[in-house]
Automatic annotation (TrEMBL):
Residues 206-283 form the ACT domain. The record marks 184 as: Essential for prephenate dehydratase activity. Keywords: Amino-acid biosynthesis, Aromatic amino acid biosynthesis, Lyase, Phenylalanine biosynthesis. Pathway: Amino-acid biosynthesis; L-phenylalanine biosynthesis; phenylpyruvate from prephenate: step 1/1. It catalyses: prephenate + H(+) = 3-phenylpyruvate + CO2 + H2O. This is Prephenate dehydratase. It comes from Mycetocola tolaasinivorans.
């Protein structure tokens, strides 16, 4: 019997720190995480290890940037670390400033600290304003800035706006990203087997490996989706890593595993692929309801199954 007077156990959420990263902003969008324990970690591996070992209940990870594309280290981890499930998706608009220790002049900057994803988005302007600069990759945007005061290896850092509220640094160039509408997509991952409820605005994430080097195998995979009216919102290939020329596909499709069309597509994929990993069904970050062609509604699939059951029921009578 549970005692209602006992406080509910607190939940722990890991995220890429230190405090002030975009990943922290993504976590701030999770209503269930408010008032719980937030654990800043140094890198993706540590965040996922927290979840697998049970130190944390969930981890927020960056999975895709609208300019730089998929975060390959995160995609590979989802494909290879067993037991992970995606339970939420969040979007964070990202912009960057160039910051430096007080008194630094732009013309004296030789070396920059920057997270690779942030650097890729700021290259265009940095190459013009700081031609010939060097780049030291940082573990996160905030770590890039903090390191200016800790080690002083670099002269400046690419950092999130507002960083100077927390660190004694000054902004030399603001809003240096090449696209003012840049967005990073984050996933909340856990080991729970509980699939988030169907909302009508859901996504399903999968990892697919084709059977050998057969012609038409990719088309057969795509047909599983198109034949059931399931729209794919993302497909990217990543090397499996064991030998040259073997790839796996990271797929996001519109819909929930409890949608009949999605469940049928998954069964078709399971039959035709060498390996299929279900990463999760979860509410899409934009919460915009999916328009389902009436030919692929739940009712149509259920009617077809009923029709088959009727035939088999009649024919199997003695
Ligand atoms: O969360 C942060 O602030 C990070 O530094 C990480 C990260 C990433 O891993 O892609 C997140 C968003 C930005 O697009 C750049 C970097």
């Amino acid at each position: 019997m549970s005692d209602a007077s006992l406080p509910a156990p607190t939940r722990t959420y890991s995220y890429l720190g230190p405090r002030g990263t975009f990943t922290e902003r993504a976590l701030a969008q999770v209503p269930e995480a408010v008032g719980q324990t937030w654990r800043p970690v140094q890198n993706l591996g540590e965040a996922l290890d927290d979840v697998i070992s049970g130190r944390s209940d969930a981890a927020m990870i960056a999975i895709e940037n609208s300019i730089d594309g998929g975060v390959s280290v995160a995609q590979d981890a989802l494909a290879t670390v067993p037991g992970l499930r995606v339970i939420g998706e969040y979007l964070v608009p990202v912009s960057f400033d160039l910051v430096a220790r007080r008194g630094t002049k732009l013309e004296n900057i030789r070396v920059l600290n920057a997270h690779p994803v942030a650097y890729a988005q700021s290259r265009e302007l940095l190459d013009v304003r700081l031609p010939g600069h060097g780049h030291i990759p940082a573990a996160s945007n905030v770590a890039a800035a903090a390191d200016l005061l800790e080690t002083g290896h670099a002269d400046a850092a690419v950092a999130p706006p507002g960083i100077t509220d927390h660190y004694d640094l000054e902004v030399l160039l603001s809003d240096i990203g090449s696209n003012k509408n840049a967005v990073t997509r984050f996933l909340l991952v856990s080991t729970t087997r509980v699939i988030p409820a169907r909302t009508g605005a859901d996504k399903t994430s999968l990892i697919a490996e084709l059977p050998g080097n057969e012609s038409g195998a990719l088309l057969t995979m795509l047909e599983q989706f198109s034949a059931r009216g399931v729209n794919m919102s993302m497909i990217e290939s990543r090397p499996v890593g064991d030998e040259m020329g073997r790839y796996r596909f990271i797929i996001d499709a519109e819909g929930h595993i409890l949608d009949e069309r999605m469940a049928e597509a998954l069964l078709g994929l399971r039959r035709s692929l060498a390996r299929l990993t279900f990463l999760g069904s979860y509410p899409a970050a934009d919460r915009s309801a999916i328009t389902v062609d009436p030919r692929f509604s739940d009712t149509v699939f259920l009617d077809a199954r009923e029709w088959l059951r009727d035939i088999l029921g009649a024919d199997s009578r003695p």
